[in-house]
Design brief:
Blueprint: E1 3-13, E2 16-27, E3 31-35, H1 42-50, E4 56-64, E5 67-68, H2 74-79, E6 82-85, H3 97-109, H4 115-128, H5 146-160, E7 164-168, H6 176-189, E8 195-199, E9 213-218, E10 221-226, H7 229-237, H8 240-246
Parallel strand pairs: 3-8, 3-9, 6-7, 7-8
Antiparallel strand pairs: 1-2, 1-4, 4-5, 9-10
The protein binds adenosine-5'-diphosphate (ADP) and magnesium ion (MG) (2 copies).
Length: about 250
C-alpha cells in the first residue's frame, strides 16, 4: 500500500498564517474526512498537498511513500498519483472536456492513451456519472451547472485513477440525486490502491462514502480525530463542543 504523510505543516498566504501544524497520515484503502468551520484552512490544506504555488509552506513536511514531495510542482505531484478536485473548478474556454482529460492522462503517464480505449473509458465514466452525452465536446466547465462541474471533477478522477484523491467540498451545490451518484462513484473507487481525503461540511455525503477516520479542523490545525460517530455529533451540535472540550477560544 501507499502512504501520504503530512507532518507539522504550517503554511501562509500573503503573510497570513493559515495552517498551524497539520498532522495527517493517509494510507491507500482508507477514507478520511475533514470537517471544520468555514475559513479554518481546509481548502488551504488541499492546495498545499497538491502544490499550489500561491501558498507558502513555512515548516513541516509532506511525504509520499517516504519521499518529500514539497519541492515538486503540481504536475509532478499529479504524476506521483495525487489528485485534487477543486472546490471551485475553473472554466477553460477553447479546450474541450475530453481533450483536457486526455492531455492530463498523457501528462500523468507520459504516453497518450489510444483513442479507442480513451473513448470507451470516457463514455463508461460519463454514463456511470449520468453526465450529458455532449459533454466530451463542450469546453471545459464552460456553461456547466455547479453540479455538472463537480461531477466533472469526479469524471477526471475516474479517468486518471490517482493513488490519493482530495475532494474539496465535492458535495456543495449538488442535489440529492447528484450527491448519491457522486458518492457512489467515489466510494466504488476505494480499494487497496486508492485512498481518499474528503472535505465536507455536511453529513449527507457521508451517507454514501463511509469514512474510516473523521478529523475536525479548527484554526488551521486538526484538533480531534475519531470515527464516523463524530459526523452525526457535528451535524447536530456544530463545533462549539469541540472548542469547549479543547479550550479553544474564538
Ligand atoms: P476553508 O476551506 O476551511 O473554508 P480556506 O483554506 O479557504 O478555509 O481559508 C482559510 C483562510 O485563509 C481564510 O481566512 C481565507 O480568507 C484565507 N485565504 C485563503 N486563500 C486565500 C488567498 N488566496 N488570499 C488571501 N487569503 C486567503
Ligand atoms: Mg469554505
Ligand atoms: Mg474551502
Amino acid at each position: 500500500s501507499d502512504v501520504l504523510e503530512i507532518k507539522g505543516l504550517c503554511a501562509r498566504v500573503e503573510e497570513k498564517e493559515i495552517l498551524k501544524g497539520v498532522d495527517l497520515t493517509i494510507h491507500t484503502g482508507e477514507v478520511h474526512a475533514i470537517m471544520g468551520p468555514n475559513g479554518t484552512g481546509k481548502s488551504t490544506l488541499s492546495s498545499c498537498i497538491m502544490g499550489s504555488p500561491r501558498y507558502q509552506i513555512t515548516s513541516g513536511e509532506i511525504l509520499l511513500n517516504g519521499e518529500n514531495i514539497l519541492p515538486l510542482a503540481v504536475d509532478e505531484r499529479a504524476r506521483k498519483g495525487l489528485f485534487l478536485a477543486y472546490q471551485y473548478p475553473a472554466e477553460v474556454s477553447g479546450v474541450t472536456n475530453s481533450d483536457f482529460i486526455r492531455a492530463a492522462m498523457k501528462a500523468q503517464t507520459g504516453k497518450n492513451p489510444t483513442l479507442f480505449k480513451f473513448i470507451k473509458d470516457y463514455d463508461k465514466a460519463c454514463m456511470e456519472l449520468k453526465m450529458p452525452e455532449d459533454l466530451a465536446h463542450r469546453y471545459l466547465n464552460e456553461g456547466f451547472s455547479g453540479g455538472e462541474k463537480k461531477r466533472n471533477e469526479i469524471l477526471q478522477m475516474k479517468m486518471l485513477k490517482p493513488k490519493f484523491a482530495i475532494l474539496d467540498e465535492i458535495d456543495s451545490g449538488l442535489d440529492v440525486d447528484a450527491l448519491r451518484i457522486v458518492g457512489e462513484n467515489v466510494y466504488s473507487m476505494v480499494n487497496e490502491s486508492f485512498g481518499c481525503l474528503l472535505i465536507t461540511h455536511y453529513e449527507r455525503l457521508l451517507d454514501y462514502i463511509k469514512p474510516d477516520f473523521v478529523h475536525v479542523m479548527i484554526n488551521g490545525k486538526i484538533v480531534k480525530t475519531g470515527g464516523p460517530e463524530l459526523i452525526a455529533k457535528i451535524d447536530a451540535e456544530g463545533y462549539d463542543w469541540v472548542k469547549k472540550e479543547l479550550g479553544i477560544e474564538d
